[in-house]
Design goal:
With about 220 residues, this protein is an alpha/beta fold. Bound molecules: ribulose-5-phosphate. The site of ribulose-5-phosphate (5RP) has 17 residues, from helix 2 and helix 4.
Length: about 220
């Protein structure tokens, strides 16, 4: 089984989970990235069961619409029973690093509205300690240098992501070399830096459920279990 086979398998499991748990006609939140793309393709097979979707990026909106799935603005929606998205790293407590695709801010906003965050990953994403994957931080462009200095003071090596502008018109600084022992504290600390829009730690609101693809099948881990 290659990595795409694993992603496809976990995407199918997520589709089955959504079909089994949401009320008919509910609106669901959809993440961004290659695993989320496989999920969107699977979602198309149950498009009559879901009312609409809220997208966490322009790329996801386009893919959902290409499958004939109606996409709503988040401001039109009061509740989302479920949000399904991938991660760059996830630990046993279901805290994550996200934003490898640069969609972290919209992902965090949509996830904040959802009752349940279902993370879909292949087994390569499960780690003991977060931080080997560089931590993405979305920054207002004029704050780049001063935010980078503060990130360096935390012990990381900030690097501007080349030729990349987010859907919100901002830049991404990727912080290399962090060993993240307390993801909640670091998430809060970076979010307090003036000029930071969001950072890619999803720890205060981590995943509730992890569907993890392995060659032996899709394993299910629940937060706090
Ligand atoms: C995008 C993300 C993605 O969920 C994350 O990068 C994982 O992507 P993939 O499924 O392609 O490995 O946070 O901003």
């Amino acid at each position: 089984m290659n990595q795409d086979d694993l992603k496809r398998a976990v995407a199918r499991a997520a589709r089955d989970h959504v079909a089994a748990t949401i009320p008919a006609g509910a609106v669901i939140g959809v993440g961004t990235g290659s695993t989320a793309n496989f999920f969107i393709d699977e979602l198309a097979t149950i498009r009559e069961r879901i009312g609409a979707a809220v997208a966490s990026s322009e790329a996801t909106r386009k893919r959902l619409e290409s499958h004939g799935i109606r996409v709503l603005d988040l401001n039109e929606v009061t509740e989302l029973p479920v949000y399904v998205d991938g991660a760059d790293e996830i630990d046993a407590g279901l805290a994550m690093i996200k934003g490898g695709g640069g969609a972290l801010t919209r992902e965090k906003i949509v996830a904040a509205v959802a009752s349940t965050f279902v993370c879909v990953c292949d087994q390569s994403k499960l780690v003991d300690t977060l931080g080997k994957f560089p931590l993405p931080v979305e920054v207002i462009p004029m704050a780049r240098a001063q935010v980078a200095r503060q990130l360096a003071a935390l012990g990381g090596q900030p690097r501007l992501r080349d030729n990349f502008i987010t859907d919100n018109g901002n830049i991404i600084v990727d912080v290399h070399g962090l060993h993240i022992d307390d993801p909640v504290a670091l998430e809060e600390r970076i979010n307090q830096m003036v000029g930071v829009v969001t950072n890619g730690l999803f720890a205060r609101r981590g995943a509730d459920l992890l569907l993890l693809a392995t060659p032996d099948g899709v394993k299910i881990l629940r937060r706090g279990a």
